[in-house]
Write a structure and sequence with these properties.
Largest sheet of chain A: 2 strands, antiparallel
Strand content of chain B: 15-25%
Strand order of the largest sheet of chain A: 1-4
Order of helices and strands of chain B: HEHEHEHEEHEHEHEHEHEHEEH
Number of helices of chain A: 14
Structural class of chain B: alpha/beta
Shape of chain A: globular
Largest interface: A-B, 42 and 35 residues
Number of strands of chain A: 4
Shape of chain B: elongated
Strand content of chain A: under 5%
Distance between the termini of chain A: 9 Å
Strand order of the largest sheet of chain B: 2-1-3-4-5-11
Oligomer: heterodimer
Chain lengths: 333, 370
């Protein structure tokens, strides 16, 4: 693990230099600059309707990115999101259709059912990582493939359409111009913030990420924290899956596609450091918005789509440069 | 002494014959490979292994292709597990390595249907099969200079689809529906994919006859529903009411577009799609989509395996067939609101039982190179 001056939330408050202030606010600054840039070129970008579109598109990814934020704070990584999302989406759809196909029946049970599936997938992930002592990167990547395969076997390659008006109300019903799913995402974001800031588990994530030996010495059951972390991430992936299905009305193996790149990019761009201990869910919110403002803004100002990935890639590098004090890192691996 | 003379003479002749024969054995065989093996050389097999080599089944389109292959195998009275699946996961190297391994295992007694993942990979795959005296039929990918008739019987056939014409027809349906004036947007596939290029060209061709329609924008949506959803939302921000119709490169893109429109409360925007997936056909029947094009991947997957198999068993002899039976375009069927339900009943609700020896019936003409 790389050694940094600001290694961990516990001691970071001891030394708040100007640089740290910059690091803390840089992602938000990037977001503001991007919004200003796109608005200047195309005034239609800066409208409530367009922000509603950006938030709607971003909601599923926000949930996934929040889930993986906990893992990254611990200094691990979870790459299982695509498989977990597919399995949750498809399980939800099967359960939903089997129980009546409308939220106005017992089919509402499929919502908690999907969350339980996500939790099980996440817990398995954590158990494999901790008990078999496989690096989280490898364990979760493999579990992701297992998930995609499982979803494939379940659907046989077919799509399941969810046409229920009540469930699709997530997209079609609006309060103050924003669809319901945006409010659901905000609600779960607040839940994540409470977990991060006001629970022992949340603080333990920072403890493990900031310095594992120190955490063990302080009596933290690190294995348990890790497994709980992966389980929590699984639940948030599942919320993301439900919102993704709500947004396009289709559950399929491909529901999970692209979420890995989007969420990891968003977390890093938001300023959560990959070696753990720094960052949090608000950083992730900013990161997700940066990614989706770019996606929307590029099309709105008429830039070709394939430049988007290039710009995002550059942003990741810039974000890592900004959030790293390279003088204090002795080696990079 | 004359018998000695005779003996020497006859020896010389037979030695010359022998030398000629062995020279022929080396060069003649290669010459034959150049001009196609003689009938006696292309051995046929009573029960060849049947294999399909493709990317993976996650994509519904490829799932349909492979299910066609399985239906064909079942038509032979075998279980569908008899079909060997070679899954390349998008790697040409794996595709070629898997084929070579299977050729070694089956000793060339193989009927192979394959999409070689990219065009340049078709030649090494075909050459490996020809060298092993196996039979191969290709789908979609091959370079323009590679032709089945240059390899005798072993390279049985190549099938592809030309999308420009059908995409132009869906575009005309769209442009008529918006009354021949206004603005349209196009959401395309992965920018470098050939079908994506052809489908956009189809739209551009149709637009030449409609001077009052403006192509506002064309963006790649990577064949992806969620990406299409985002791109369409951004289009709505940029162009708003200027958009009077949407031309989508395939059905999965159209699903994302329809949901982006639904989120804005727009219900009656004319949208065309492509591929004829079951849900898209239902949407056409419900008049949410204007048209889609069915390319019958089930038949395509089955017939590609059937051609390789029946050539391998000697049921027909590829080199006796005309060129348009060796390289041909797959079927295209238009689905519009008027005939969507009938089409759905005939093709999708119950998969038709195809005669897998009617190799060219449903196809739509030879492949034309530009």
């Amino acid at each position: 693990m790389a050694i940094t001056e600001a290694s961990g939330g516990i001691i970071s408050s001891l030394k708040l230099s100007r640089r740290n202030t910059l690091i803390k606010w840089a992602p938000l600054l990037v977001l503001v600059v991007l919004i200003a840039f796109f608005s200047l070129i195309e005034p239609r970008f800066f409208s409530v309707r367009n922000f509603a579109r950006i938030f709607t598109a971003a909601s599923p990814s926000l949930m996934v990115a929040v889930g993986v934020t906990f893992i990254i704070i611990m200094g691990s990584i979870d790459l299982s999101m695509e498989g977990t999302i597919s399995v949750c989406a498809v399980s939800f759809a099967f359960c939903f259709m089997a129980l009546g196909g409308t939220l106005a029946s017992w089919a509402w049970l499929s919502l908690p059912f999907a969350l339980v599936i996500g939790a099980i997938m996440g817990a398995l992930n954590g158990l494999i990582h901790v008990k078999l002592k496989i690096p989280s990167f490898m364990a979760s990547l493999a579990m992701g493939f297992v998930g995609t395969g499982l979803a494939m076997v379940m659907t046989g390659g077919d799509r399941i359409r969810i046409e229920d008006e009540f469930f699709r109300g997530l997209l079609t019903e609006r309060i103050l111009n924003f669809p319901l799913m945006v409010y659901v995402a905000v609600l779960f974001l607040l839940v994540a913030w409470v977990i991060q800031s006001y629970t022992i588990l949340g603080r333990n994530f920072y403890a493990v990420g900031g310095g594992e030996e120190l955490a063990i010495a302080s009596g933290v059951d690190v294995d348990r924290v890790r497994i709980m972390g992966f389980m929590l991430a699984g639940i948030f992936f599942s919320v993301g899956a439900l919102l993704a299905v709500g947004r396009i009305g289709i559950a399929e193996t491909a529901t999970g596609n692209n979420f890995m790149f989007l969420s990891i990019t968003a977390v890093v761009v938001g300023g959560t450091a990959l070696w753990g201990g720094i960052g949090g869910v608000w950083n992730t919110l900013v990161g997700v918005l940066v990614v989706f403002v770019i996606g929307n803004g590029m099309v709105v100002i008429g830039l070709p789509g394939y430049t988007q990935d290039g710009v995002l890639g550059l942003l990741v590098i810039i974000a890592v440069i900004l959030s790293t004090d390279r003088k204090s890192i002795s080696f990079v691996k | 002494m004359s018998f000695i003379k005779k003996f020497i003479e006859s020896e010389t002749v037979s030695r010359r014959n022998f030398l000629m024969a062995s020279a022929y054995g080396i060069s003649g065989a290669t010459a034959l490979q150049m001009f196609g093996p003689s009938p006696s050389m292309a051995a046929t097999y009573s029960d060849p292994t049947i294999a399909w080599s493709y990317r993976n089944r996650t994509n519904p389109y490829w799932n349909e292709i492979v299910s066609g292959g399985e239906a064909f195998v079942e038509s032979l009275g075998k279980s569908k597990d008899f079909l060997t699946h070679l899954i390349n996961e998008g790697s040409s190297e794996k595709s070629l390595a898997d084929v070579k391994a299977l050729l070694a295992k089956t000793n060339g007694e193989l009927a192979l249907a394959i999409d070689t993942n990219d065009a340049p990979n078709a030649r090494p795959v075909v050459e490996a099969c020809v060298d092993a005296n196996a039979y191969v039929s290709t789908l979609w990918n091959k370079t323009d200079d590679l032709h089945p008739w240059d390899f005798g019987d072993n390279y049985v056939s190549h099938m592809s689809w030309s999308d420009e014409g059908p995409a132009e027809r869906t575009a005309r349906i769209l442009l008529e529906a918006i009354g021949g004036k206004g603005g349209v947007v196009h959401l395309g596939g992965i920018a470098s994919n050939n079908p994506a290029i052809e489908r956009l060209n189809g739209l551009k061709n149709a637009l030449k006859d409609y001077p009052d329609v403006e192509l506002l924008d064309a963006e790649p949506a990577d064949w992806d529903t969620q990406k299409a959803n985002q791109v369409m939302s951004a289009f709505i921000t940029r162009y708003g009411d200027e958009i009077s119709g949407v031309h989508c490169a395939n059905d999965t893109i159209a699903y994302g577009v329809l949901e982006a429109l639904r989120a804005e409360g727009i219900e009656d925007m004319p949208v065309t799609a492509y591929d004829g997936n079951p849900q898209a056909v239902q949407l056409v029947a419900d008049r949410k989509l204007l048209a889609t094009v069915f390319t019958n991947p089930h038949w395509g997957g089955g017939i590609t395996a059937a051609l390789a198999y029946y050539a391998a068993t000697g049921y027909f002899k590829p080199s006796d067939e005309p060129k348009e039976h060796r390289e041909f375009n797959g079927p295209t069927i238009f689905v519009t609101p008027e005939d969507a339900l009938e089409f759905k009943a005939n093709y999708l609700d119950s998969v038709p039982k195809y005669d897998w020896t009617d190799f060219w019936g449903p196809s739509s003409g030879p492949i034309v190179y530009k």
